[in-house]
Structure formats: structure tokens, C-alpha cells
Input
Amino acid sequence: MRQGSHSPIGVFDSGVGGLTVLKALMSHLPHESTVYLGDTARVPYGTKSGEVVTRYSLKNAGFLLERGIKLLVVACNTASSVALPALSAALPVPVVGVIAPGARAALRRTRGGGVGVIGTPGTIRSGAYQRELEAAAGADGVKVKARACPLFVPLAEEGWLAGDVPRLVARDYLADFARSGVDTLVLGCTHYPLLKDVIAEAVGPQVELVDSAEATAEVVAALLEEQGLLAHAGGEPTHQYFVTDVPERFVEVGARFLGRPIHSAEQVDLSF
Ligand code: DGL
Output
């Protein structure tokens, strides 16, 4: 099938988290059809090696490509931080990750040059945000403070978004940020936008939060426009969901991440 403006945007993530990115895409690009793949059989990616995450990512991308996508969004921060070069080299369509858009948005917002980044252990260990921030800042320079916050993922999935437990966890992870001259904090994981309130409270009002999902949706909109691939208004967009394990939990938890009901998701076998 030949891709054109009518073709869907493909989005993959390790599971439900990438639905925060899909939500931002749907709100910025309401006429676009989308195909989402959550690799729920192999989640989490955040604790796995870069080599394994790259292998999974190539498999996910291959599946979406067979569905005739015109552009791939790598919604997972961990996959974006380790697999983007391999994906871009392997795919015949544009590939957009969440790291560069998030880093660039942070540099546009920072007032004093101190940028914090939080994400999974894999994302932080890869140094991808740190490298992107430094490269984009160039001669202006930027002071980066990065930290992995692994407990935020299960808290977000459990819907534990307010109250003592998430507040204490956030304070423990983030107290240092408030004291270290950081004025902008990148939410470098798909799950963290759900915990925005407790994160904001832990770092204090002088620190501005940057949502990589929002920044990515803006980059995708600009890229589609530039390449003449924007869907035309008038048609009814379709949204398809695929998962690699049974769909029940994805459908239930996913609705919270997406902010709208997910009526069905189809299980597919990507084993290799
Ligand atoms: N989607 C992952 C990310 O944004 C978080 C969940 C996981 O570890 O797989 O890094």
C-alpha cells in the first residue's frame, strides 16, 4: 500500500503509557487516523538493556509499517533514547521520538539554564536527554541534572496519583531538584504526566514542567505539514489499538491515560 496524507500515524510504546502521547497527538491533529501498538507482553522497557529494547522496537515498528503508516512516533521514552538510530535507518517513513522534542521545549522555557530530567532507569542511563540538551544548547551551555524515578510507573498504572504515598515518593526523588538551581523539569517518561500535580508540588512553583508528549505532538504536526502529509478535514479519523498480551487491562487502565474510552484492542503475536 502506498502511503499518503490519508494513511494513519503509527505509535508504539511498551504498554499503556504511550497513550499520553497519543492523547496529545489526537488533540493537536484531530483529523489524523492512528494505529497504536502497546507491547504489553514485554513491558516494562525501562529496566531492560538498550540492546533488548532496540530489538523489541524494530519488531514493533515492522508491525506498524505493515499497517501502511505514513510516520512512526516512538512514544516510549526508553525506546526513543536507545533505538531511534536503528529505527530511522530501518524504516522508509519518518520516525519521531520523544527525546529531541522534549529537550528542545525545555531549552525554550529555561530561564537560568538549569534543566532537570526524570525518566526510567534505561532512559537516564542512556544519557540521551543529557546529550540532546547539550547539543541543542550549543555554546549557550546548559546544566543538566537527571534522575531515574522508577516507582512513578506503577503508581501511575495503579491510579495512585494523589495522597501521601505518591507525595512521599515524589518528595524523596525530587527534593534535590528544588535545591539545585533547576528551573525546568522534563517529564521524560510516558507515565509522568499523570503525576504532574505531585511532581509540581515536590519541586516547587519556581520549576516549570515540560511534557515531552505535548512537545512531540507539535513536532509531528509541523513535520506532516512540511511534507504535505496532513490529513484533510472532513473525513472521519479511525483509531486502532493493538496489544501483545490479553487486552483487558490495557483497555481499562488505558482509558485513564488517554482520557477517553478505548472500546477494543486486538491482541497480536509478535514473538520471535
Ligand atoms: N513507556 C516507558 C517510558 O516512557 C515507561 C514504561 C516502561 O518502563 O516500559 O520510558
Remarks:
- The domain at 9-97+214-267 is CATH 3.40.50.1860 (Rossmann fold).
- Residues 50-66 form the longest helix (17 residues).
- The mean pLDDT is 96.
- The CA atoms of residues 247 and 265 lie 6 Å apart.
